[in-house]
Write a structure and sequence with these properties.
alpha/beta; 11 strands; eleven-stranded mixed sheet
């Protein structure tokens, strides 16, 4: 019975349909595993054993939800003491959509405070540990969700991605992480970090799972004005055992490799793993083409003006009157971004900082549009290194921010991105990043699926 927690979502659905085990047995197995391992990983801040929010351990598929996504009557703290004990009176749209599909919330996962960070070390409730090496960071900000999936503490998890917060922990923990196009999934019920950058996506055990979850959570709800009216559909209702368009060949597909992503900042061993993965795509029939994203070196600076600026506006609500316990409980990283953003937006500096960053953002988006005129997807590294030591970059924010160098451009441009495990460097996972045109998650997932099926990376699991 212990093996059922290692199944992917699609495998779980098939096994349930064939009555190999019941939902009661499935939930019991996951809850027992959480009880056994969570104390050493700190992936969950709350485990739902009390049948809250229409969740019964006998009736739902157990999914983990990042603690910045609202869950009715279940604690939602955003990893902060400011919201300690807060239980929302409503569910986020994505949670409602999962409930309609027979999926429930088994628990709320740890995250950097208000989804600000790059390592999983900024939570007010303690650090999440990387399961491959507990002295290493798991990546941020969706640290708990990535670790829960990597260690089979849930069938799949939801996270949020503002500048790489799904893809980077997915890469560092060896799972699949999908950042959706901006506007593909409603943000209603997501505690905002930077409103023009935030997206909700998934962390899963397979690419096929990521496609299925996206088909469940995408589409309009009437609450998020930026959400597209189109729902992502890839498969018929009879999903199990049905061939999908993911299985189509990538023969002749043009894969762009940006020269700017392979410079001095990329660890040589990580570079070797990524190049090997790109070669595998070529062996599968894809045509590899060098492309240029000339403004990507300026994207990080632009991001760290736009991001704090929007944070300073969004955090103004946490004044201890309407929400939260007051600003004295806010952690150092959140304070740092509020101060940076307030400065960038202040009279006399707005034109020099925020306005200039907005112009760079437009140039970054135009770079992608130009590149996608000649290629179908763009591939490269997710992170410049594998997971680093806990505490190594905590006192050097600039060094920490550089961990986002390859991921933030996708958020500035609003395009989808996928992290797929593609190998190991010194025993730690490395993720291949696949970027696509806005709204074209299908091609991104198809390339990821082709790579995954050809390499069978799921044989490797962390030894807890």
């Amino acid at each position: 019975m212990a093996d059922i927690t290692s199944l992917t979502l699609t495998q779980t659905l098939k096994a349930l349909e064939e009555k190999e085990f019941s939902l009661e047995e499935l939930n019991k197995a996951y809850l027992e595993r959480i009880k056994k391992y969570n104390s050493s990983l700190n992936a969950y801040l709350f485990v739902n054993e009390q049948n809250k929010q229409s969740f019964s351990t006998s009736k739902k598929i157990p999914a983990a939800i990042k603690d910045v996504i609202s869950t009715k009557d279940i604690p939602t703290t955003a990893g902060s003491k400011v919201l300690g004990g807060y239980r929302p009176p409503y569910d986020a749209t994505v949670v409602n959509l999962l409930l309609e599909q027979g999926v429930g919330v088994i628990g709320k996962t740890n995250c950097d405070e208000f989804a600000m960070g790059a390592s999983g070390e900024n939570s007010a409730y303690g650090v999440t540990k990387n399961p491959w090496d507990k002295t290493k960071v798991p990546g941020g900000t969706s640290s708990g969700s990535a670790v829960a999936v990597a260690t089979d503490l849930c069938v799949f998890a939801l996270g949020s991605d503002t500048g790489g917060s799904i893809r980077q922990p997915a890469s560092l923990c060896g799972v699949v992480g999908l950042k959706t196009s901006y506007g593909r999934v409603s943000r209603y019920g997501l505690i905002a970090t930077a409103s023009s950058l935030d997206t909700i996506g998934s962390l899963t055990k397979s690419v096929e799972d990521a496609a299925l979850v996206l088909s469940w959570i995408s589409g309009p709800d009437g609450y998020d004005a930026n959400c597209t009216n189109e729902k992502f559909t890839l498969q018929p209702k009879t999903w199990v055992n049905h061939p999908t368009r993911l299985k189509a060949s990538i023969q002749g597909l043009k894969v762009g490799v940006p020269k700017e992503y392979f410079g001095e900042g990329l660890d040589s061993k990580v570079k070797e793993v990524i190049n090997k993965a790109i070669k595998k795509l070529e062996e599968l029939g894809a045509e590899v083409v060098e492309v240029s994203l000339p403004h990507s070196p300026y994207a990080l600076a632009a991001y760290y003006i736009i991001n704090p600026s929007e944070i300073s506006a969004n955090m103004a609500r946490f004044d201890g009157i309407r929400f939260g316990f007051g600003r004295e409980k806010i952690g150092p990283e959140v304070k740092r971004r509020i101060m940076l953003g307030t400065f960038a937006l202040s009279s006399g500096y707005y034109d020099d900082y925020y306005a200039q960053a907005a112009k760079v953002r437009t140039l970054v988006k135009q770079d992608f549009e130009k590149a996608f005129a000649s290629v179908d997807v763009i591939v490269g590294p997710v992170s410049p290194t594998t997971a680093w030591n806990l505490g190594e970059k905590v006192d050097d924010p600039l060094k920490m921010y550089l961990a986002d160098i390859y991921t933030i451009s996708a958020n500035l441009a609003g395009i989808p991105g996928l992290s797929v495990p593609c190998g190991f460097s010194d025993g730690l996972p490395v993720g291949l990043q696949i970027l696509g045109k806005q709204w074209d998650e299908e091609t991104v997932l198809r390339v990821g699926y082709a790579y995954e099926q050809a390499t069978d990376w799921r044989k490797e699991k962390p030894k807890l």
